[in-house]
Amino acid sequence: MVVKSTGLAVAPEARPARAPATRPDEYLYLTGRPRMRDLVRFARSHAVKPPDEPALVKAWQSAHERVRSLETDEVGLADDPPMRPLGSKYEPLLIELFQDPLVRNGFNTVPTDVALVELDRLVVYQKHIDLTYVRQLASSLGRGGRTPSDEEVFRTCLLHDHDEPPVKWSRVQHDRFVFISPSNDLRFLGAGPLQRDQIKDYPARGKFVGLVGIAVGLGSNFLNAVYAEKRLVLNNGSHRAYALRQLGVTHVPCIIQHCASRDEVDAVAASEVRKNPDAYLRHPRPSMLRDYFDPALHLVMPVYRRLRQVIVRFEIEENAVPAL
Question: What is the residue extent of each domain of the chain?
Answer without folding.
Answer: 2-197+208-313
